[in-house]
Amino acid sequence: MNTQEPQKPYGIRCNLPPDDPMSAPHLLGPDWEAYRWYPTEQQRDADYEDYRREHRYSRRGDQPSVIYTKVSR
């Protein structure tokens, strides 16, 4: 972690369900995960709700298969 960057204790963990096609070994793999970190709980919660909405440019009814989980350090 860059010591110049302010601490961001609130995060969102992103991962895939086991049956997701993108979790295939030649794509993202079964252990893929990513984190987004925020300085405040309010910023994290706002993005969390935004991630869970239907994608603006997806077909109506399509739902993302990414699993979002609120986390803290």
Provide a descriptive summary of the structure in words.
The protein is α+β, with helices and mostly antiparallel strands and 73 residues long. Helix content is 16%, strand content 25%. It has one domain. The protein is built from one helix and three strands, in the order E-E-H-E. The longest helix has 12 residues, at 41-52. The protein starts with 9 loop residues before the first strand and ends with a strand. The model has no long low-confidence stretch (mean pLDDT 88).
What can be said about this structure in brief?
The protein is α+β, with helices and mostly antiparallel strands and 73 residues long. It is 16% helix and 25% strand. It has one helix and three strands; from the N terminus they run E-E-H-E.
